[in-house]
Amino acid sequence: MPQATLTLAYNGQRTEIAFGNRTATGDAVYAQLANRPGIFIVSADIFNQLPHSANEWRDTSLFSLVSAPPWNRIEFRAGSRSFALDLDKETGVFFLSKPTRARADPARFELLFRNLLAAQVKSFVNDNPRADGEAYGLQPPEMEIAFAVGTNDQFGVQFGKSPTNDASVIYARRLLQTNIVLVSRAVFDELQVTHSDLRDHRLVTFNILQADSIEVVSIEASENFTARRQPGGTWVAGDPQPMAADPELMRDWLMLLAGLEGSVESDVVTDFSTLYNLAPPARQYLIRSAVTNAAGSVSNRVVAQLDLGAVQGDKVFARRPDEPSVYSLPLTNVVRLPHAAWQLRERRVWSFTTNQITRLTVMFRGATNVLQRNSGNHQWAIISGSNLIISNPIGFSYRLDELMFQLGELRAESWIARGEENRGTYGFEPPGSRLSVELKTGDGPRLLTLEFGAPSPSGLPYALAVADGQTWVFEFPKTPYFLMVRDLFSPLFRQP
User: Fold this and answer.
1) Phi then psi for 344, rounded to 5 degrees?
2) Count of other CB atoms within 10 angstroms of residue 216
3) Residues 6+ apart with CB under 8 A from 132
4) What number of other Cβ atoms are within 10 A of residue 403's Cβ?
5) What angle do CA 20, 26, 31 make, to 5 degrees?
6) CA-to-CA distance for 242 and 123, rounded, in angstroms?
7) 3-state class of 190 per DSSP?
8) CA dist 395 to 192, 255, 387, 470, Å?
9) Are strands 388-390 and 444-455 parallel, antiparallel or unpaired?
């Protein structure tokens, strides 16, 4: 009695191979061709690959036909959570078409599609097309995923319930083959997505590297401006005399715009003006990119647009011009968007070296202390002031030089305002804290003054300084402020 018989049919002929016992070494088996004399010894690898049942050679991909169109629609049917995606013929991109039309998030759709392709059948249960679906929780199903051309389903999978003795698997029916199978419950859980889960909530979609200019139009301020990328990759901002924009600020601005995600306030809006103040918008950002047409002419085309409207509590209403929807953005994100060219100014406040310093005046809580730096031994000494005690001159001088070095390379965390009229708004009231640095330069003596006001919402202190003949309010960086508080701004300036 053979262990197995393999029948091959080809070109109208039929060949049977009978496999017997293994040889003594175990790496081969005896075989015989039907109706032919002789017994052969063949590799056991052939015998080992023979299936024990028909199911072993079956396709275990749950959605085996998904990667083989034609289909241009995917529909998830799960009661109130039902939704559909359709292929846009012009762009070749899927969009959410049901229950409301919306952009689909490309990354989330890609993940969903990968999960569909990766879903595997664990075992085959019933191939009878008349099998009782109710026994498997398939009448009606918990969820059905259908692939269609228009409204005509081409292929689909229904999901039912778990067997009573194993909650880790779930029944499913592949409608094209009509067979009932078992799949891991994890497959079912991964496909539990909603219309909202797949929706693209980004307000601005564009390629950061291809943005050539950003125009800011505002009815709430008198200064509209445009930032333009230069041939070398740097940016300038403002008109008619553009100034160099800080590279990090420009990078942060572009990344913030590209990453803005809003919450849907209303899907279909007909009146953008009354409640939302979006017609016209309070502020508008237009991102343009250079496009070359077939004739070789280059034009700056608007590739993305963001409209901002009314502020309501801690949120700001916003919209895209290509949608009838209104979103809301966190106010904390909106305040980080520049609305004036000066906010993009290079963040270096001033520049000097430690060896240029001759004298330092510190004002804190009404007390004034003056320190002088000896140009010979670089030691600091008290000139006037009674509440500063230096018990370790060498250690104090080393620490103060470190602070002066950081002040000489001072960069604002962000520009907040400009002009003397903003003093009261940001807490620059007497007596206040102030630092004055006297410098010796090739052009003669120079005095730089730094004032400190209230803390900003981020926790950093507001600082005020004059740079390029203009008064600036900015957020002061954390590290030099810590050194300043430690070594200079304390109730008693005692140095160990």
Assistant:
1) -100, 5
2) 21
3) 139
4) 21
5) 25
6) 69
7) helix
8) 64, 43, 18, 36
9) unpaired
Q: What are the E-state strand segments in 293-366?
A: 298-312, 315-319, 326-330, 357-364
Q: How far is CA 70 from CA 65, 88, 112, 147, in A?
A: 10, 14, 19, 9
At 450-491, the pLDDT tens digits run 999 999 988 899 999 999 889 999 999 999 999 888 888 864
* Spatial distance between the Cα atoms of 238 and 245, rounded to a whole number of angstroms: 9
pLDDT band at 69 (very low <50, low <70, confident <90, very high): low
SS3 content of the chain, % helix, strand, coil (to 5): 20, 40, 40
pLDDT tens column, 236-274:
999 888 999 999 999 999 999 999 999 999 998 999 998
Structural domains in the chain plus CATH codes? 4-50 (no CATH), 73-198 (no CATH), 208-344 (2.60.40), 354-495 (2.60.40)
> In the structure encoding, which two tokens stand for residue 113, read together?
């599609």
Token reading at 370:
């003056």
Q: Do β-strands 493-495 and 388-390 pair in parallel, antiparallel, or remain unpaired?
A: parallel
Tokens of 110: 């890609």
pTM value?
0.75
- Tell me the CB-side half-sphere exposure of residue 37, using CA atoms within 13 A: 0
Name the token pair of 183: 């799949």
Number of CB atoms found within 10 A of residue 119's CB: 23
Q: Residue type for 288, please?
A: R
Report how far residue 329's alpha carbon sits from residue 308's, in angstroms, rounded to the nearest whole number: 9
Please answer whether residues 19 and 5 qualify as being in contact, where contact means their C-beta atoms are separated by less than 8 angstroms: yes
The one-character DSSP state at 476 is P
